[in-house]
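User: My instructor asked us to take a sequence, write out its structure as tokens, and then describe one feature of it. I'm not sure where to start. Here is the sequence I was given:
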Amino acid sequence: MDRLEFLQKAGFLTATVLAGTLISCGGDDEALELEKPIDVDLANPSYADLEIEGEWLLHPEVNVLIVNVNSDIRAFSSVCPHRQCTRDWNYSPGVFVCTCHNSRFDATGQYLSGPANANLRELSVVREGDILTIGG
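Assistant: Let's start with the prediction itself. The structure tokens for your sequence are:
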């Protein structure tokens, strides 16, 4: 193999690896869906604060942010559309911040600023008494 042929093959291999890396960082929206709906019992002390306007939590078992917005409980995928961080979130008056790279979203999941370029994915929430069923 001469030097030109080697450089051509090495260049092709490098381009292929880089393309695969870029594609894998993009995330797969289908993989973000809940496998099955989850129930949250607001009578459980772990979730009771969600009854208070402005309170929120990152569900401990699945990648879901839950927030009380104007007495309406909403849920969003906690997978940041920028780099798919899932566990690094803060919430202060009306704004979610993914602390991985400081992307900001309002309480309705709408993109505000930062390196992300899409909204948070909202999940359905159905309330029956103290039970919230998320993603159904």
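For the description part of your assignment, you could build on this observation: Residues 10-32 have pLDDT under 50 and may be disordered. Try explaining in your own words what that tells you about the chain.
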